[in-house]
Specification:
Blueprint lengths: L8 H18 L3 H11 L3 H15 L5 H31 L7 H15 L1 H8 L7
C-alpha cells in the first residue's frame, strides 16, 4: 500500500474553494473534480474526501461526536446531582454522627429508596449491599 501524501493546508483550502466556485458557476458536475485535480496534481478521491470533510464541518447542527459527548455530560450531571441530594438528606438524617449505626443506615435506605434508589445510596454512602 502506498504511503499517503501530505499536502499543505493552503493547497487543501485552495482546492476545496475551487470546487465550491465550480459548483456555483457550473452546478454539480464531475467535470469540476477532474479539471481541478488535473490542474493541482491531486487524486480525485483525495479532493472528494476534502470536500466532504469541509461540508460536514459547515453543516448546521451538532456533530455526532459532540452530541454523544453532551449526552454523556448530561448523564454524569444527573448522577452527580442525585449523589449531592443523597448526601444532603443523609447529613440531615444522620446529624453529626461520623459513622451511624447499621440500624440508622437501614432506616435511611428504607425511607429514601423510592426517591434515590437503593444502589445509588449504597454507592454514595459507601455502604456494603449486605447491610440492607
Amino acid at each position: 500500500m502506498a504511503r499517503p501524501r501530505l499536502y499543505p493546508d493552503e493547497l487543501r483550502q485552495r482546492a476545496v474553494r475551487l470546487v465550491f466556485e465550480w459548483r456555483e458557476t457550473h452546478g454539480l458536475t464531475d467535470g469540476g473534480y477532474t479539471a481541478i485535480c488535473t490542474q493541482l496534481g491531486l487524486h480525485r478521491k483525495t479532493l472528494r474526501r476534502w470536500v466532504i470533510e469541509t461540508e460536514a464541518g459547515s453543516r448546521p447542527g451538532v456533530a455526532r461526536a459532540d452530541r454523544d459527548r453532551v449526552a454523556e455530560l448530561e448523564r454524569e450531571n444527573r448522577e452527580l446531582r442525585r449523589a449531592n441530594e443523597t448526601l444532603k438528606t443523609a447529613a440531615a438524617f444522620f446529624g453529626a454522627e461520623a459513622r451511624p449505626p447499621t440500624e440508622k443506615v437501614i432506616a435511611y435506605i428504607d425511607r429514601h429508596r423510592d426517591r434515590f434508589g437503593v444502589e445509588p445510596i449504597w454507592k454514595v454512602l459507601r455502604v456494603a449491599p449486605s447491610t440492607d
